[in-house]
Design a protein that fits this description.
Helices cover 80% and strands 0% of the residues.
């Protein structure tokens, strides 16, 4: 997923909305959401990048 792609333009507002409204300002849930969104973002391009992020 590239920063200038349509997928990212859809991905970012969804993650932003979930971060601010769906986690009820719970820091642990917000951190879990950011980690999951980051893994999804990196894995979207190539699953091997996701494996690299998880292993390191």
């Amino acid at each position: 997923m590239l920063f200038n792609s349509l997928e990212f333009a859809i991905f970012l507002p969804i993650v932003f909305f979930l971060y601010w409204f769906a986690t009820n300002k719970n820091l642990r849930n917000q951190n879990l959401l950011i980690v999951a969104a980051s893994l999804l973002f990196y894995g979207w391009w190539d699953w091997r990048f996701l494996l690299l992020m998880v292993v390191t």
